[in-house]
Every structure is written in C-alpha cells, then in structure tokens.
Amino acid sequence: MTNAIYxxxxxxxxxxxxxxxxxxxxxxxxxxxxxxxxxxxAQSRYTDLDVAMRGLKNGDTVTINQPVxxxxxxxxFGADTIVSDDTLRLYMTINNNPIMFYDAATMTQSPFSPxxxxxxxxxxxxxxxxxNFIFGTGYTAxxxxxxxxxxxxxxxxxxxxxxxxxxxxCLNLVLIEExxxxxxTMFEADINVFPNPAHGKATLRFALNEPADVRVxxxxxxxxxxxxxxxxxxxxxxxxLSINTEAIAxxxxxxxxxxxxxxxxxxxxxx
Length: 271
What we know:
Layout: H1 2-42, E1 45-47, E2 49-54, E3 61-63, E4 68-76, E5 87-94, E6 97-98, E7 101-103, E8 108-110, E9 113-116, E10 125-133, E11 142-153, E12 159-161, E13 168-176, E14 181-182, E15 185-186, E16 192-194, E17 201-208, E18 212-219, E19 225-234, E20 237-244, E21 251-259, E22 262-270
Parallel strand pairs: 1-12, 3-13
Antiparallel strand pairs: 2-4, 4-10, 5-6, 5-9, 5-11, 7-8, 11-13, 14-15, 16-17, 17-20, 18-19, 18-21, 21-22
C-alpha cells in the first residue's frame, strides 16, 4: 500500500512538472513567433542600391563660384522595388568632410538631401542630380575629392538595403579659381598651356595689359610644389613662357600663374 502511494505521488509530480514546462515552452514559442513576425514586418522589403557618379569623371576641372551639376546613377539590384513613397537619402562628402544640406521643411541643416518619387524595380536604374552646385569661396584651388552615397528610407513601410558596400561613389577632381585680373585688368586672351600632356617642356601662353613680374608654380595633387619659375619685368602684350618638366615625375599637376596678388590656376598632365 505504501509503495502504491509513493508511485501515485511520483506520477503527480511528473505531471505537474510536465504541465509547468509545457506552459513555459508555449510562452517561449509564442514570444519567438511574435519576435520573428515583427522582424519580418519591420524589414518587409529588401533592396540593394548600387551608386555610380556620372557626367564628371576623374581628373575633370571644376571652377570656384561656377555652378556644376553633380549626378549619380542609382541601380536597384535587390529583390524588392523602390516605390514612390520611399526616400532616397543622398549623403555627400568633399575632401572627407560631410556636407550639410538645408531642409526647407524644418528650416534646419540636415546631413542628407532627400529625393522621392522613384520607382525602381529589381535591375532598374535612374538618376539623382544636384543641379547648380557651387564650390564657393570657402574652397581653395587644388585637388578635390567628392563622394556621394545613397541610402533608402521609409518610416511607414520599412525598406532596407542588404549590401552597403556599393552605395557610395567617389571622384577625384581639380578645383581651379575663377578667371582673375592682372593689374586690375583682365587677361587679353585665354591662358593656353601646350602641349598638354607635356613631354619635357610645356609652354604657357597668355597676354598682359601692362608690364608685370610673373611667377609660375607647379604642384602635385597633394599640394606639394614641385617647380617654381619667375620672370621679372615682362612687358605688356602676348607672353610665351617655357617650363622645363623633364625632372618632374609623370602625372597630373596644378599650375598657378601669379602676378602680384592675382592668380590663375589650371591643370597640366606630364608624361
């Protein structure tokens, strides 16, 4: 009789423990289901944007205070579609410095410029353009690195980008100064450098409206001066100055023509 009581007690204990753990397991499974469903809902659309700058190309020249169009082509290689309600956020850096955009809606500065109204199915592409972008007087002539990155966003209908290694495109440009005056007068003719590319020697041709001393500097793309030449007492009129480039390594360089406080910069390639 005693053994039977023990056996019944053990069976009741086993059933109690079984019910306890079954309830906990059910709760755990319910939690995991809700969590997984929430994650799927939060990331319901998957895209893969590939970005490439267009129009400008490496080595091109842009001018301070003169507008230029900056354009990127955006491909969607993901499985889902970018819809018109999505926002394509354009981020931009110049010489590794983030650019802040003015948000007219909030009247504040934003680290990105929003673009909407795009419909990009898988393998479709379209363009985003910043028109009339101006490199103002806060920039100095010389090498210029521009990077543009695009990230999709939608607060109401979540969209994500599964691959972030191809969302950015960069170009290395040359920023030159606006045409300047010499002795408070404009150049009589456009400055011409030839041959360009130069082989051993380059000739700088321009015109002065009055006598002046002239200095020419050549700098590499890191801003290091590799050659300086000076001509004193040049008369008014056409000038043709020869620059020896034999000792300069092949590559792209910036020339700077200086007369007093006035300067003019341009690009020259040495081979």
